[in-house]
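Postdoc handover notes: sequence design on the structure in folder B. Input C-alpha cells:
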C-alpha cells in the first residue's frame, strides 16, 4: 500500500496526504493556525491532482467546536477548494450529547459555506471511508478502496509529533 505522507503533526493534531487525499485528525479543538496548515496542504493537493482531490477531517472528542476564527478559516478553505475538491468527509467521533453537538455544528458550518463540494458528517471513520471512496470514484477522482483509505486513516492516528 502507498504510504501516508506526514505534512504536520503534534500531540494536538496530525495532517497527512495519501494519494489524492488530505487527511486531518484533531485531538483537541483546532486553532486558526492549525486550520491554516490544513489549508496549505489542501492547496498543495489541488495543484498536484488536477483531476480532483478529497478531504477527511476527523475530530476526536471531547474537543469542543472550533472558535469563530477557526470556523471562518474552515469555510474559506472550502470556498477556495470548490473547483478541485470532489468530496469531503467529516468524522466527529464519540457518542452522546457532546458528539451530537460537534456533528451539528459541523453540519452548520458546511451549510454556511454553501459549498458545491459533496460533504457528509459521520460518527465513525469506516463509514466515512466507504462513502468517500465511492463518491470520489463517481467523480472520476478515485482514491482506491475504502479498506485502503481506512488503513491510511489508521496510519494518520499514529502520528503524534
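Designed sequence:
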Amino acid at each position: 500500500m502507498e504510504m501516508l505522507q506526514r505534512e504536520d503533526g503534534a500531540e494536538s493534531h496530525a495532517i497527512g496526504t495519501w494519494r489524492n487525499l488530505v487527511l486531518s485528525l484533531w485531538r483537541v479543538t483546532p486553532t486558526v493556525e492549525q486550520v491554516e496548515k490544513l489549508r496549505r496542504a489542501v492547496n498543495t493537493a489541488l495543484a498536484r491532482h488536477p483531476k480532483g482531490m478529497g478531504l477527511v477531517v476527523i475530530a476526536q472528542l471531547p474537543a469542543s467546536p472550533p472558535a469563530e476564527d477557526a470556523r471562518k478559516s474552515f469555510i474559506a478553505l472550502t470556498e477556495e477548494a470548490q473547483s478541485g475538491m470532489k468530496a469531503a468527509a467529516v468524522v466527529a467521533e464519540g457518542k452522546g450529547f457532546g458528539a451530537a453537538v460537534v456533528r451539528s455544528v459541523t453540519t452548520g458550518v458546511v451549510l454556511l459555506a454553501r459549498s458545491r463540494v459533496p460533504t457528509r458528517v459521520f460518527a465513525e471513520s469506516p463509514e466515512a471511508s466507504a462513502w468517500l471512496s465511492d463518491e470520489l470514484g463517481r467523480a472520476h477522482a478515485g482514491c482506491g478502496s475504502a479498506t485502503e483509505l481506512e488503513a491510511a486513516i489508521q496510519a494518520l492516528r499514529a502520528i503524534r509529533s
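Context for whoever picks this up: The mean pLDDT is 90. Don't rerun without checking with the PI first.
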